[in-house]
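Structure in, sequence out. Go:
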């Protein structure tokens, strides 16, 4: 048996682009939890407030968490150049199309979190 620790999927929003994401493992789950734990606590705190500072802080923390998901889960991008250079996870986040970033983040989250039917089993 050969277990593939990544999976490659075609982009739904950018034809010809393929993204490779890391599959979840126990070690990767622990790494992910460590990276987002403190930010998630702060995000929850600021989301409960209604001041401008709370709104801006919660927005910033949400973006930081999304960046962690993208950097942690994205293994590679094929079929996309940004400013004439093959895309990397860093360049995708910094200069790439936001809809593709969101698509990658959702694919990573789908890999991390169990669906309702998976939780029942």
């Amino acid at each position: 048996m050969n277990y593939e620790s990544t999976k490659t999927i075609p982009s739904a929003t950018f034809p010809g682009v393929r993204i490779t994401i890391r599959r979840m493992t126990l070690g990767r789950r622990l790494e992910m939890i460590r990276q987002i734990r403190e930010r998630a606590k702060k995000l929850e705190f600021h989301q409960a407030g209604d001041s401008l500072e709370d709104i801006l802080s919660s927005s910033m923390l949400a973006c930081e968490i999304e960046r962690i998901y993208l950097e942690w889960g994205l293994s590679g991008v094929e079929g996309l150049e940004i400013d004439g250079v093959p895309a990397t996870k860093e360049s995708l986040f910094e200069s790439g199309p936001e809809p593709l970033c969101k698509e990658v983040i959702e694919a990573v989250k789908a890999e991390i979190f169990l669906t309702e039917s998976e939780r029942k089993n």
